[in-house]
Structure formats: C-alpha cells, structure tokens
Design goal:
The protein is mainly α. The protein has one domain: MetI-like (MetI-like fold). 72% of the residues lie in helices and 2% in strands. It is built from 12 helices and 3 strands; from the N terminus they run αββααααααααβααα. The chain has a 3-stranded antiparallel beta sheet with strand order 2-1-3. 33% of the residues are buried.
C-alpha cells in the first residue's frame, strides 16, 4: 500500500500578516528616524547660533571675573564651577543614601516591604523640582545650613546642592536596586554556603557583580544634577549674574540656572544680542557635558559588565 504524501506546510505565513508586520516595522523605523532628525536639527541650531555668538564677542570675554551677560561678561568658568559644586554636594548626599537604600531593598527587605517602599521611591522621583526648590529655601537653609554654618546667606550653593541631592536620591536608589536584583541568586547561595554573613554577601559579592549597573545609576544621577534648573534657580541666588567663586556657602549660578535666569521674559533677553545668543552657547555646552558623561558611562559599563 502506497502512503499518501503529507500536505505541504507553508512556512512563510499568512501574506496579510507579513504585510502588517512590514508596515509595523516601517512605522517604527520612521518614528526612530524622526527622533534622530529632530535631535540633529536641535544640535545644528545650537552649533550655528553658538558660532554667531562667538563671532560677536572677544574670546577674552569668556574668561572674566563673573557671568553677567547683559554687561558683556560671559565667564564660562563661573557656571562650570557652580555646576561642579552643586553636583558634588548633591552626589555626596544622594550617592551613599541611594546606594544603601538600594542594598536594603534588594538584600534585606521582605517582599511586602519592598512592594511598598519601591513604589514610594518612584513616586518621590516624580515630585516637581520647583517644590524641592521651595523646600530647600524655606526649610533646608534656615533649619540646616544656617545652623551648621552661622552667617550663611539666604541664597547659597550649599542649599541648592542639598536640594538637588534630595531630588536624585530616588533615581539612584531605584536604578541601583534593579541592578542588584539582577545578580543571579546562585551567587548569593554560594556565598551563604561558605558561611558568609548577609552584609558580606551584599558588599563583597552582590555589589561587585552589579557594579556596572550601579555606576550607570551614579552617572545618570550626575547628569540629572548637572541638568537641574529650578532648585538651583530658586535656592542658589545669582539671578542677574554671579561672580566666580569656589565658596559653597555663597550665592552662585550653574549652567542651567543661568539659562533660566537669562531667558525669563523676552524683554529681558533682548537686553543685548550677544546675551540672547549666549543661551545657545550654554545649551551646546550643557549638551556636550551630558553627552560626554553618557559616552563615558557607556564605555565603563561595557568594560565592567559581567554576563551570567
């Protein structure tokens, strides 16, 4: 008896389904290209306006005694130093607290506690920065800074740095906790099997294994601190300009706060053509800093990432 051959199976799938998949892929590609094109136009606009700005001023104006754009003083070091001071203070607060909170949530908290605390952290991350800035001005400065440092002015970089640190604690804690939780369970069990304590497992096994994710969290926190505007604009002072200073207890400006101060009100921006163009110069400077941080973080993560 001759066996009848089995009917051929079409492995290519339904033609209508293939058309829908091709259409979906094209739509997604268009969305990706649109975002790239928009970003490219933004960068080009910043570059062209920055070139025009540099053509209207002397390069010596970029290295004066302070940042007073309506007076023709565009000392970029004033803003970079202010940004560095605020970022260092913020990371000195948010780094340890955020990392310790992440270790607790990943290694010590029960599932019930984690299910409550983790959403609360994510909600805290959504608090508007203007609220944190007002809190820093009305509570942190009089109740903390001025009590620890008698004679500190109302507006100072220390208060702004503490406010920014509070703002980025949830960000660092959430991302670090995700990185710690991604470490395979068998590494923990092997350490416990050797008699290690929980704190030893957390600090000497889990944390080194998740170091790439933790560093990425810190770099994102640094970028967030550098890019913060409202907290610094409210708490640091220097709305009309600032002298170059290394004193964290004095008023100052950051790159973002300078942009916000200069761009407040179109009538004020029109105080000088070079002052208006300096907005694009600061925007390009901020873009370069954040891009450099992201590239540095990506290189570090690629080199330290461990695959299990």
């Amino acid at each position: 008896m001759t066996a009848t051959p089995a009917p051929a199976i079409r492995l290519s799938g339904d033609p209508r389904r293939r058309r829908r998949e091709r259409l979906t892929a094209r739509l997604l590609l268009m969305a990706a290209l649109v975002s790239v094109v928009i970003s490219g136009f933004i960068v080009l606009a910043l570059v062209f306006e920055t070139i025009e700005f540099l053509g209207k001023i002397d390069l010596a104006d970029l290295f004066t005694i302070g940042w007073f754009p309506r007076r023709g003083m565009f000392d970029v070091l004033t803003l970079l130093i202010g940004s560095a001071i605020v970022t260092l203070i913020a990371m000195a607060i948010a780094g340890p607290i955020g990392l310790l909170a992440a270790i607790y949530l990943a290694e010590y908290a029960s599932p019930r506690v984690r299910s409550i605390v983790k959403p609360v952290l994510e909600v805290l991350a959504s608090i508007p920065s203007v609220v944190i800035g007002f809190f820093a001005l009305t509570f942190i400065n009089p109740q903390l800074v001025q009590r620890l440092f008698v004679g500190a002015p109302v507006f100072n970089l220390m208060t702004a740095g503490i406010g920014v640190g509070i703002l980025i604690i949830p960000l660092i804690a959430s991302i670090s906790e995700d990185a710690l939780r991604a470490v395979p369970r068998n590494l923990r069990e092997a350490a416990y099997g050797l008699g290690a304590r929980r704190i030893t497992v957390s600090l000497r096994v889990v944390l080194p294994a998740a170091i790439s994710g933790v560093v990425a969290a810190f770099i994102i926190g640094i970028s967030r601190a550098i890019g913060e505007t409202m907290v610094v604009a409210i708490a640091a002072g220097g709305t009309g300009g600032s002298l170059r200073t290394f004193d964290p207890l004095g008023p100052g400006q950051t790159v973002t706060a300078a942009i916000a101060s200069l761009a407040t009100g179109s009538d004020q921006v029109q105080g000088g053509q070079a002052a208006y163009l300096s907005l694009f110069f600061l925007g390009l400077l901020l873009f370069g800093i954040t891009l450099g941080l992201n590239v540095l973080g990506d290189v570090f993560v690629r080199r330290t990432r461990q695959r299990y």
